[in-house]
Write a structure and sequence with these properties.
285 residues; mainly alpha; 0% strand
Length: 285
């Protein structure tokens, strides 16, 4: 074979070897490109997942915060509504003796309804304080309701006293003033008989050692008060009976003392309720 033949054969061999090498290099390059594309895709997916999760977390946090804010608002509204119904009920009790009439049963129902809402919303410490406050409110209403006939009779009597004093003249009788003095004397006798506290209206003897004389004096004072009230044209027979009964049981002093105790317990319960509500996290903004 001549030199030209060897050259042609060598060229063919080089070409035969070069084609597979080119294919192999191309495959390597393609695989590298695919790996790079896959890595880029994975990085993109990870970034997208992270972005998505961050958005979900932010939405969840915003939703949780919004729900917590909504729940705080609901609870504060329930607490406020309950406290307002309580104060309305107590104010009704305050005004009842001089008013035309109060529906205490309706006031209690309103308070009960607001308490039920508060019980549903919680929390337990505030519910417990609310129940105590409702009980002291009801105690006061029951006391006022039971005392209404007497308190209204005394209001009418005091109005008659003021009217007589305004229109008093030296040459006119003062029957309401006389009735006031008679009732006061009867009340003093009964109070000192039950619990001596100072100078005795019994004068020179001890009613504990001479009960018969004490009984006679009480009957005499009762009869004098009855006669004096009958002479008051502005006092009805029903009011007179109520005034006599009240004076025979010591007058207004004991009832006023009970009322003051009820209101003191109420104010303490109200303060405890406010403290329980204010100390709870839901009281904040």
């Amino acid at each position: 074979m001549d030199l030209a033949g060897f050259g042609a054969l060598a060229a063919a061999l080089v070409a035969a070897v070069g084609i597979p090498a080119t294919v192999l290099v191309g495959r390597w390059q393609m695989r590298a490109a695919l790996r790079s594309a896959d890595a880029t895709s994975q990085a993109g997916l990870a970034q997208a997942q992270a972005t998505y999760q961050a958005a979900v977390d932010q939405t969840s946090a915003q939703s949780t915060a919004a729900h917590a804010q909504w729940r705080r608002g609901i609870r504060r509204d329930a607490w406020s509504a309950f406290l307002l119904t309580i104060e309305d009920a107590v104010n009704a009790g305050h005004s009842a003796p001089s008013g035309a009439g109060e529906d205490f049963a309706a006031a209690r129902r309103v308070v009960k309804t607001s308490l039920v809402v508060l019980e549903l919303e919680g929390p337990p410490p505030v519910v417990t304080a609310a129940k105590t406050l409702r009980r002291t409110c009801n105690d006061y209403l029951e006391l006022v309701e039971g005392d209404l006939p007497a308190s209204r009779a005394w209001n009418a009597f005091h109005a008659a006293v003021d009217d007589e004093r305004t229109n008093f003249a030296d040459d006119t009788a003062a029957p309401v003033h006389d009735a006031q003095a008679a009732l006061s004397h009867l009340g003093n006798l009964m109070r000192e008989l039950r619990a001596p506290t100072g100078p005795s209206p019994w004068a020179s003897f001890d009613p504990a050692t001479e009960p018969d004389i004490a009984h006679e004096r009480i009957e005499s004072a009762y009869a004098a008060a009855t006669e004096a009230l009958a002479a008051c044209p502005s006092i009805t027979s029903g009011q007179a009976r109520t005034l006599l009964h009240d004076a025979a049981h010591g007058g207004r002093g004991e009832m006023l003392h009970q009322r003051d105790d009820c209101l003191r317990f109420f104010e303490e319960s109200r303060a405890a309720f406010l403290s329980a509500a204010q100390q709870h996290p839901d009281a904040g903004q």
